[in-house]
Amino acid sequence: xxxxxxxxxxxxxxxxxxxxxxxxxxxxxxxxxxxxxxxxxxxxxxxxxxxxxxxxxxxxxxxxxxxxxxxxxxxxxxxxxxxxxxxxxxxxxxxxxxxxxxxxxxxxxxxxxxxxxxxxxxxxxxxxxxxxxxxxxxxxxxxxxxxxxxxxxxxxxxxxxxxxxxxxxxxxxxxxxxxxxxxxxxxxxxxxxxxxxxxxxxxxxxxxxxxxxxxxxxxxxxxxxxxxxxxxxxxxxxxxxxxxxxxxxxxxxxxxxxxxxxxxxxxxxxxxxxxxxxxxxxxxxxxxxxxxxxxxxxxxxxxxxxxxxxxxxxxxxxxxxxxxxxxxxxxxxxxxxxxxxxxxxxxxxxxxxxxxxxxxxxxxxxxxxx
Length: 370
Prior knowledge:
The chain folds into 4 domains: 96 residues, Beta Barrel (conserved putative lor/sdh protein from methanococcus maripaludis s2 fold); 89 residues, Elongation Factor Tu (Ef-tu), domain 3; 59 residues, CATH 2.40.50.100; 74 residues, Helix Hairpins (Orthogonal Bundle). The protein is built from 4 helices and 25 strands.
């Protein structure tokens, strides 16, 4: 009898175990298997790279102060020029004629003034001898003063005519080279029309556009590194931020930053493309943790960007919605500036098939080192 009871108990226990095992298998079959990743910490985490363009620290757009026909202009792009060198000439004949006319008018005015002076002196002697009236001497004096004023006025006209004549020649104000030509020889030139863009020989600046998400992480006098694509890419130039624009571009919503190279090279030319490596001035160590996650892991709704993270719950994981702040899109994914930690488990794919607080199983748990 006791043996029979023992056998029945054993059978009952065994049956219960089988049923529990069956239930566990059924639960696992109903649980969705997902795959997760851990955010990757950005290598050289403190550095951000932006495209830039080299420029001369001194560029001048030259133009004539008078109009005329450009009858001498032999310069070509890239030509080096010296300070004081003649760059171009306008047809000077109309201005030479104005100078000649002013000279002739001045000669006539001086002759008239001399006659008026002689007449005034003669009338003055007659007046002393009471042979001329007060009105006679007053008229003579007025004529003399008017003739002197006319000489002065025409002298100014002559001075202006000579100045305009001098403006028909365009000289280089600095040592440099021709970086842009706006006109060609024999064209009619208006006052103020750009002729050439003159750049000095020293190219020691690069201009870079920085997005608004990063602009407050840098400051003036920060040290940066510059590498030019067309030069030896293993060679980097030390540089420093000298200017940061206070206003964003209306089209790109970026801010212009000017970086000055400390030890430049003659190989650097204006317009060359470069990469500028910034090291942000973080005030909070948490901000320096820039992480990467795959593009597919980043979702967005009315409240902004978010990811699904997986929190451990016994033998399973629970799906949780986590808000994040994203930065730039890179080759290896989106930068996540805030919202994630390095050890978070982020849903890699299948976001449309899960919902918050859903229990899931991670299929690649061993690969994650958990």
